[in-house]
Amino acid sequence: MKKFVKSALARGLFWQAVGLLVGAGLVTGIRAIMGLSTIVQPFFFTEPAWVFGAFVGVISFLVGSGVTSDWIKWARGIDTPEHHEDHYAGWEKFVNVSMDHKVIGIQYTMTALVLISLGGLFALIFRAELAASGLQFLTQEFKLFEQNGLQLYNSLMSLHGMVMIVSILLGTAGFINYVVPLLIGAQDMAFPRMNAFAYWIAPPAAVLLVLSLILGGVDTGWTGYPPLSAHSPLGMQMFFLGVFVAGWSSILGALNNIVTVLRMRAKGMSAWRMPILVWAAVATSIISLTATQLIGLSFQLVMFQRLFGMGFFDPDKGGNPVLFQHLFWFYSHPAVYVFILPGLGVVSELLPVFVRKPLFGYRWIAMSSLGIALVGFVVWAHHMFTSGMNEYLRVPFMYSTLLVAIPTGVKFFSWVATIWNGKITTPTPMLFVLGAIVVFLMGGLSGPPNATVSTDLHLHDTYFIVGHFHDTIFGGFVFPFFAALYYWFPKATGRRMNETLGKLHFWLMTPSFLVLTLAMMRVGLIGMRRRIADYDPGLGIDTYHLVMTIAGFLIGLSVVIFIYNFFNSIKNGEKAEGNLWNSRSPEWLVPSPMPAHNYETPFEVVGEPYDYGLKDSQFVKFVEPAKGAHK
Amino acid sequence: MSHSQDKSSAFGQGVVIFVYLAVLTALEFFIAISFNAVPLLVVVAIVKAALVMYYYMHVYQLNKDDSNLDPHSYEYRMGSDRIGLWLFLLSDAFVFAGLLVTRINLLGMTRPHLNQTLGLIVTAVLLISSFFMNRGETAMKHGDRKGFMTNTLITFVLGLGFLIGVVFVEWRLAAAEKLVASFGNPTDGPVGAVFYMMTGMHAFHVFTGLIFLAVVWNNARKGVYSQEKHWGVEAAAVYWHFVDLVWIFFYPALYLIGTAI
């Protein structure tokens, strides 16, 4: 406990609270001098005071945790060593600032797991409310955090979306951070301090998101559309600020990743010999680097509209609410490719290992990731077919959206062709890879009806959409994420996770999930609207909802099993220090767990990465560098 | 053109580019008041941006082949830093692009009725500051620490002048003369919202640029930088030019195109 109190995380949280109070107090003081209202009920401070305080709180967290101390030294002209050795051992390493990409990768992953659990908990609460028509426990009389049951339903539903999105961003950042430098043979990321900063900016953002639930909640859904969000309770501002701050984690992580891949590859690793996950990570980073700014901007504009009365999206003042949707979706559509591309990269990366065959069409897969990323920039308005935007925009955006199916189809074709005639083994990671392919296929097939204007006008804002995107996100992120965790867990810990529990996790989660999303799509077609707390019993969908609720809780149970397995295996797992999966990839050719500065002997790339089953083919060769020679 | 020049020809190049930019800005103003051809203004802005990016920000350095260097050397890492900085600027450019889109969407072919003289003055001040920034960086490249400090100080003062000109003069004038509603006025229409947001976001970047300049100036005073090792100076200079680059587009967007309302 004492060790935790002294950790960077605890220091950061403490200073965040102090910063929040100081910032809010400052604004309150200035308002008092200007003769404006200072203390208002029910949340004590006024809205500007809360917003400024929250902003100061984030900065205090970063300075207080110590992640910026090297930069502050540089600004004062003091040199610092290029690498810092970690002073901590065990769990303490992960609650303190570290520059090691492997530690940061694990920090990201752990934070993602915490947020997934939180977002999942939110979902289970409102899923339970939906189990039958009528209001069960989230009723008008129910009161919590200044909200009645229905408002709380809205807040939980909105925050389920955003907390999950942030957790996905952190989860992908987690395995990209851990694995990419290992795959390309780098000692670390290009900018270790910025890497640490990009992680440490996420916890205060998560705090703000949770704070939004307490300060009156968020009632707009995760999209935060004005005009509604311009009149929502105070929680909306915390929500906007939290997302804005989390966005910086994404932007800086992406920047770091691109430079790392461009500049730090091992000798001989030309573009066409990069592991496929590296391609996927670069494609993802291109989107997060650039498009993320637009969600930040759109949320900022609403924040300023609320704080200063600037009428960007207020039709009464000549503003345009549809403009918000354009800015917002310019990020938020490509964002779904940020979520799925690393996951699809994991699928392509792991598949050849477990079927013992070369990856089919390597170059096409590499290009398809970039293709999805680039086409993703010109499809955003398919979210807005019913928004009242100019009608002539509909058809071009329909076709550009359908175009996404082509690079995605390339991936499926390659996966099927890779599996074809392979010697398939199915340990847990492979099960999740296969699960990802099946589930993502469902998500892919349910996509074109939403992209097509004529059908989307009917499907828009129904549960069909909910089913569709849960399929894509589970197939593109959740399954591959679990696959990656089971697969690289031994690399990080030197032990493997329990296979029986892993298989139980898979066989509990997959059927429940398929039932859940198929039922979602079915009730959507019948007429179930998304984002509402209640529905008409006359629709005859009560049974479907009950089944969905049960399936949802079974998924929750399977994740609990996973978490138990995860933490238990760190200490008690079976030892696995060698090349457990018989992989060609360089990180498996050295003993686990990985030493602090990765490869003691650097490697050179001498062959193709995925030539499994071909005689005498070699991917990498470890060579001691000649003394004094340059790379 | 050779990229490794002696000091005086590098200074000379900075002067020539500055003259080009000044002439183009005057041309821009002339086009706007005489026949207001928006496509022409866009072309002029792009030409100015290209000049700044090539000759002041040295974007071609990204293309430098340094694969034969030791990856732990200062020079190789500076190459990585440079790519990182440009990616950051690319990311930042999306914010400003988003603001331009907002401006076009909400205001269309109208613009706020602003004080043209003041607009031209602040634009000129920022442009001149960019010129001195280039001079300062060139001096440091040739090991002239004194020259760097003098020129950076001039840049800083001009930058501060720009900031004061926009936030403390322009904002007040615009509000006082009811050209746009005053800041924070709830009855404010999209004109004021766009005006304050665009100039405010840009002013915030000028402000961070000033902090950056103060930091490198102070470090140069302490003797942290040398002719070979001065990445901090280069980064501050490139960032400062980027702030100017943004204004190259924001100035016509706010002051020149369309009809004033």
Strand tally of chain A: 8
Q: Structural class, judged by helices and strands of chain B?
A: mainly alpha
Determine the N-to-C terminus distance of chain B.
46 Å
Provide the β-strand percentage band of chain A: under 5%
Query: Order of helices and strands of chain B, N to C?
Result: HHHEHHHHE
| Secondary structural class of chain A | mainly alpha
Radius of gyration of chain B: 19 Å
What strand order characterises the main sheet of chain B?
1-2
The residue ranges of chain B in which pLDDT falls below 50 over 5 or more consecutive positions are none
Whole-number radius of gyration of chain A? 25 Å
The helix fraction of chain A, in percent, is: 55-70%
Looking at the chains present, what oligomeric state does this protein adopt? heterodimer
* Helix content percent band of chain B: over 70%
Protein topology:
The complex is a heterodimer of chains A (631) and B (261).
Chain A lengths: L1 H4 L2 H27 L4 E2 L3 E2 L1 H19 L3 H7 L25 H29 L13 E2 L2 E2 H36 L7 H9 L1 H13 L20 H29 L12 H33 L12 H35 L6 H14 L18 H10 L1 H15 L8 H18 L2 H4 L1 H7 L3 H31 L1 E2 L2 H28 L15 H31 L1 E2 L27 E3 L14 E3 L9
Helix pairs in contact in A: 2-3, 3-9, 5-6, 5-7, 5-20, 6-8, 6-9, 6-11, 6-18, 7-9, 8-9, 9-10, 10-11, 10-12, 11-12, 11-14, 11-15, 11-18, 12-14, 15-18, 15-19, 18-19, 19-20
Chain B lengths: L6 H28 L3 H19 L17 H34 L2 E2 L4 H26 L3 H32 L13 H32 L9 H26 L2 E2 L1
Parallel strand pairs in B: 1-2
Word description of this protein:
The complex is a heterodimer of chains A (631) and B (261). Chain A has 20 helices and eight strands. Chain A has helices spanning 2-5, 8-34, 47-65, 69-75, 101-129, 149-184, 192-200, 202-214, 235-263, 276-308, 321-355, 362-375, 394-403, 405-419, 428-445, 448-451, 453-459, 463-493, 499-526, 542-572, and strands at 39-40, 44-45, 143-144, 147-148, 495-496, 574-575, 603-605, 620-622. In chain A, strands 1-2 form a two-stranded antiparallel sheet. Chain A has a two-stranded antiparallel ribbon with strand order 3-4. Chain A has a two-stranded antiparallel sheet with strand order 5-6. In chain A, β1 and β2 (44-45) form a beta hairpin. In chain A, α11 runs antiparallel to α15. The mean pLDDT of chain A is 92. Chain B has 261 residues and is mainly alpha-helical. Chain B has helices at residues 7-34, 38-56, 74-107, 116-141, 145-176, 190-221, 231-256, and strands spanning 110-111, 259-260. A two-stranded parallel sheet of chain B has the order 1-2. The radius of gyration of chain B is 19 Å and the shape is elongated. The model of chain B has no long low-confidence stretch (mean pLDDT 90). The interface between A and B is large, with 42 and 42 residues.
